[in-house]
């Protein structure tokens, strides 16, 4: 069995409080507690509302920031593309600038060239004419061509009123006088005559004809009432006359040449004439005169002296043999030095 519980101790009897003062304090404490609770609840609710508002505002701001970041990326990509385009255009502009500078330099050079005065150009042209004349004298011995070039240069200088070229013109006139005093060598005329003789070589008749006379049978005529015996006798007489030909030949020794020899004779005559032409172009007077004399001797010995062609050929060869072929042309260095001095003086100015 269980033991019985002990009885609780007796509580002391409360003191009797003041009835009016205690109730009033309790009411004020309860009111203060209720007011504090209400304030706490209001503050909590307000904090909750502010938190919700702050969360909503932060979400909107984050969304806006995301949109701005995307827009910034797009703008950055566009800016990079624009930058690359601008760089390409800058490179193209630099290339064009280099080309423009080169063109400007070329235009400036052209302008300087075109800005040269007419007198400078005239002096340059005169110098070129003098150089051409000097080449004609030294290389080809062409006195006539050099004289024409000097005369053209003097005519150009005569039209330059403002240009002081008195010394240059005096040098030109002195050189022209020296060229005019030289004997004229008609190289072209002599060459033409030699070519004509070469072409006539095959037609020059020899002393003895190269072909036999034509048969007389072709020219015989038959008389209708002629007797056969008389016709036979006449034919026999014609044949006998064709066997013998009488001709006087001068010089005394007869020059009888076979057809093959006559061919080589004419070919050797052509070679002599061509050799004279080559010696003429080379200004070799000794070889020229030897070939001309040899051609004269062959025509006089082997060809018919009574033929008009042979007489004309001998006269032409005699004239060619007396013509001057080689001369020592003077130089025109004085004129060249004068024109170069004039150009140098103008360039210094």
Strand content: under 5%
User: How many beta-strand segments?
Assistant: 0
Q: What is the element string, with H for helices and E for strands? A: HHHHHHHHHH
Whole-angstrom Rg: 67 Å
Mean of all residue-level pLDDT scores: 78
Question: What best-fitting shape do the alpha-carbon axes yield?
Answer: elongated
Tell me the number of helical segments per DSSP (H or I, 4 or more residues long). Answer: 10
Number of domains: 3
Which class do the helix and strand fractions yield? mainly alpha
Q: What is the first-to-last residue Cα distance?
A: 156 Å
Main beta sheet: none
Low-confidence stretches: 1-6, 8-14, 211-218
| Helical content band | over 70%
Structure summarized in a few sentences:
The protein is built from ten helices and no strands.
What do you see in this structure?
The protein is mainly α and 349 residues long. It folds into three domains: 78 residues; 84 residues, Four Helix Bundle (Hemerythrin (Met), subunit A) (Up-down Bundle); 105 residues, no CATH class. It has ten helices and no strands. The termini are far apart. The N terminus is likely disordered.
Defining key terms:
349 residues, mainly alpha, 10 helices, elongated, disordered N terminus
Indicate the topology.
Blueprint: H1 19-114, H2 118-140, H3 143-158, H4 166-180, H5 187-200, H6 228-243, H7 259-281, H8 285-302, H9 308-322, H10 333-348
Helix pairs in contact: 2-3, 2-10, 3-4, 4-10, 5-7, 5-9, 7-8, 8-9
């Amino acid at each position: 069995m269980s033991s019985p519980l002990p009885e609780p101790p007796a509580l002391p009897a409360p003191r009797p409080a003041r009835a009016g003062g205690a109730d009033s304090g309790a009411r004020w404490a309860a009111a203060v507690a209720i007011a504090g609770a209400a304030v706490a609840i209001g503050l909590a609710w307000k904090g909750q509302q502010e938190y919700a508002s702050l969360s909503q505002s932060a979400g909107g701001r984050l969304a806006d920031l995301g949109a701005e970041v995307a827009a910034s990326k797009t703008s950055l990509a566009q800016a990079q593309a624009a930058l690359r385009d601008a760089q390409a255009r800058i490179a193209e502009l630099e290339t064009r600038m280099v080309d423009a500078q080169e063109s400007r330099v070329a235009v400036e050079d052209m302008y300087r060239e075109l800005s040269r005065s007419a007198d400078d150009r005239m002096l340059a042209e005169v110098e070129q004419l003098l150089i051409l004349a000097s080449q004609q004298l030294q290389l080809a011995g062409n006195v006539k061509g050099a004289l024409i070039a000097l005369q053209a240069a003097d005519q150009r200088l005569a039209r330059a009123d403002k240009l002081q070229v008195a010394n240059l013109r005096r040098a030109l006139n002195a050189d022209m006088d020296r060229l005019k005093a030289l004997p004229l060598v008609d190289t072209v005329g002599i060459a033409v005559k030699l070519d004509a003789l070469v072409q006539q070589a095959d037609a020059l008749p020899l002393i003895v004809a190269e072909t036999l006379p034509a048969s007389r049978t072709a020219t015989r005529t038959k008389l209708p009432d002629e007797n056969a015996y008389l016709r036979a006798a006449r034919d026999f007489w014609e044949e006998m006359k064709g066997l013998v030909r009488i001709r006087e030949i001068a010089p005394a020794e007869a020059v009888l040449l076979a057809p093959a020899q006559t061919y080589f004779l004419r070919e050797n005559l052509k070679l002599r004439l061509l050799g004279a032409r080559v010696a003429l172009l080379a200004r070799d007077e000794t070889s020229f005169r030897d070939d001309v004399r040899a051609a004269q001797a062959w025509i006089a010995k082997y060809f018919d002296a009574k033929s008009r062609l042979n007489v004309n050929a001998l006269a032409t060869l005699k004239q060619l043999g007396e013509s001057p072929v080689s001369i020592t042309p003077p130089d025109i260095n004085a004129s060249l030095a004068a024109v170069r001095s004039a150009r140098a003086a103008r360039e210094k100015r």
